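User: Can you recover a sequence for this backbone? Please restate the input before giving your answer.

Assistant: Of course. Working from this structure:
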């Protein structure tokens, strides 16, 4: 679509960081849609009172959940911003959102299961797979949202029929 035609290396790095972040959120969203609807009425969370299509679930949870969720996301985003982006006072005029030279988009040094390959070639293959899965998840989440908005039925309900 020509998004990168006029972009320099710093802009492309920012685009890649955004794509990885959105892909990861979308992968979690897809899992949330499927699991949230599958365990409906049988979960110990929220007294098993969350019902209906997944697009309505967040509006049914208590305010305390929202506060915990907001604080958690804000903390994670603060950590990511500190690791990835140059401090605003050190950024030249006209280069807002400048990322650190040594930062690899998406690499937050969080690997509790030790899945990150040591071999650079294997690491590039894993990065490509993550990008592809993230892109697929973005399309799937958009499709789930659209389908549930159209007819008000959950995705699991569609898959079961």
């Amino acid at each position: 679509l020509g998004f990168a035609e006029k972009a320099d290396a710093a802009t492309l790095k920012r685009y890649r960081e955004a794509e990885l972040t959105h892909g990861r959120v979308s992968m979690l969203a897809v899992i949330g849609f499927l699991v949230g609807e599958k365990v409906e009425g049988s979960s110990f969370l929220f007294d098993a009172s969350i019902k209906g299509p997944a697009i309505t679930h967040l509006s049914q949870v208590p305010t305390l959940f929202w506060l915990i969720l907001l604080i958690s996301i804000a903390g994670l985003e603060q950590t990511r911003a500190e690791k990835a982006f140059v401090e605003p006072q050190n950024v030249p005029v006209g280069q807002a959102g400048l990322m650190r030279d040594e930062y690899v988009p998406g690499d937050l040094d969080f690997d509790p299961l030790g899945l990150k390959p040591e071999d650079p070639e294997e690491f590039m293959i894993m990065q490509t797979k993550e990008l592809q899965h993230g892109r697929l998840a973005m399309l799937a989440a958009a499709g789930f949202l659209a389908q549930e908005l159209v007819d008000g039925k959950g995705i699991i309900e569609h898959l079961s029929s």
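That completes the design. Helices lie at 9-38, 63-84, 120-151, 155-160.
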